[in-house]
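User: quick one, fold this
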Amino acid sequence: MSRENDRISTNVDCIDIVKLPATLISVRGAHCKVFQTAGIRRRKSAPIRNFVLKMHVLACSKREAEIYHRDYRKMRKQLKEIIPYAMFVRTRINGEPNLLVIAYAYTPWFNIANPANEAEALPLLGKHPRACLQLEYFVAAAKQWREQEGKVIDLWGIDNLVLDKDRQIRYLDSFEVFFYEDMLHIMENAGRELEEKITISLQRLDYLDYLVQQNKKS
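Assistant:
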């Protein structure tokens, strides 16, 4: 018999959850819980792929879903393979209109955005020049989005930016990937939480820029 945690426990209209083995891998995100499937083949001749299914746990309006998808397209267009291929689906989750994201799965191997890992990060990037180049692209894009559009990329989330098991840089978040600094001034009750997330994200972006610059010197 299958274990309970080998099945998706949430009712999703567009998925036959009874026939889809999946393991719950995260509930730490502010907006979603994440399941991972194993060994799915889109057609007989296609390679076997692992996918993650990200289910929005709060009510998500059509407009919110459009914003999430727009931000994903923006990131994917500029950062290419750093952003896993994903499909955004408006469906019913537990009977209510909501949003599901189905994305290629990548296994986090090293949290590159955590300053506590600096002693390991610098030699790792030195050994893997492609990852260092990817990180340089990521930092440049993040700085451009902030300077030109006032968008701060979410580096507050746990394991948002990682090296995967193939030593490639991946950004794994899908929901609310940007914070808006002007919200701190527009909304009276934006609160310390948003300010903290923006502050930490910017500190980590500066740290990532430092890693890039240090590797250029070496």
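User: anything notable?
Assistant: The longest strand covers residues 32-40.
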